[in-house]
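Hi team,

As requested, here is the filled-out complex form for the 5-O-phosphono-beta-D-ribofuranose run. I kept the field names the same as last time so the parser does not choke. Let me know if anything looks off before we queue the next batch.

— J.
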Amino acid sequence: MKKSKSNKPVVAVIMGSQSDWPTMKEACDVLTAFKIPFEKQILSAHRTPDEMRSFAIGARTAGIKIIIAGAGGAAHLPGMTAAYTTLPVIGVPIQSKALNGIDSLYSIVQMPKGIPVATVAIGNASNAGLLAVQMLSVSDDDLHEKIETFRARQNQDVKESNKVLKK
Ligand code: RP5
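And here is what came back:
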């Protein structure tokens, strides 16, 4: 019989504010679709700095393998989290009201040398989820198969659209 996998979270999805949730939910939806155990919480680099630090320091010991961090404006949550852990951090720039997310994007993508944050496009938490799945698939054959199936389906969808377009 195949050994069942643990339900212990391996991905942590964190975000700077409740207002980030509609965006960050898309990362959670991808993780759910691929049956990746994850946890989620609001942690702010400026409103709850001590909690953010404790989380980042303890994440690896807690069994987390990848952190997805979303933040907007002066978006230092992904970078500050990355400073406290050597786990891979994927940053999601949240679309802000004032600057449409350009502020969030630059804050996250422009990490100085030494502390990397893998940054996805503004608001594209779905890609952050997919990237986490792909990273985990490096050492998980079942997951590798699932991601290949997902890609094949996307490819097929384009071909189907073309059939309709050419009619
Ligand atoms: C950041 O400030 C959050 O990540 C959020 O995107 C932005 C605005 O937060 P709220 O004022 O909506 O709580 O810390």
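Two things worth flagging: The two ends are 49 Å apart (CA to CA). Helices lie at 21-33, 49-58, 77-84, 102-109, 125-137, 141-166.

Thanks,
J.
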